[in-house]
Design goal:
It is built from 3 helices and 6 strands; from the N terminus they run ααββαββββ. It is of the alpha+beta class and 140 residues long. The N and C termini lie far apart (49 Å).
């Protein structure tokens, strides 16, 4: 009998799944993914530090996401790579990863760290508590 997946696996699944949601959400189209899943993945006290240094609380992030529905071209894509556990203690884990966004022939990259805590009622068993993104140069 096997138990639930380890916290690192749950958090990695969450990173991949939420970015897949963002891809579908930002692309144009008649059908939108379920925004409630995104809302349920962010803890009530979630904070995000954007690549420009701006600090946004959960309500600001969700408001901006709602307004951005279908705002990207049809070729918009997000790729996640280099996922690694940076720290873990009890039911909390800090992951690092690289996010690449593609749109209309251009590429942006950011190095991100996400803090997650276990939350059995969340869509994938963890919630985002904090996200820090930093711009990275694009390799040529």
């Amino acid at each position: 009998m096997s138990g639930p997946p380890p916290l690192a696996e749950l958090a990695q699944r969450e990173v991949i799944a939420l970015h897949a949601f963002f891809t579908a959400w930002f692309r144009p189209g008649p059908t939108a993914p379920d925004f409630g899943e995104c809302e349920a993945a962010l803890a009530p006290d979630f904070r995000m530090v954007a690549p420009d240094g701006a600090v946004n609380d959960r309500s600001t992030v969700l408001h901006r996401l709602r307004r951005a529905r279908g705002s990207q071209p049809a070729d918009f894509a997000i790729a996640i790579s280099g996922v690694e556990v940076l720290w873990q203690h009890g039911d909390a884990i800090l992951l690092g990863y690289v996010e690449e966004q593609y749109r209309s022939g251009s590429l942006t990259r950011r190095r991100s760290t996400g803090l997650f805590t276990a939350a059995p009622a969340a869509p994938r068993g963890v919630v985002w508590r904090h996200l820090q993104e930093t711009w990275m140069p694009v390799a040529h």
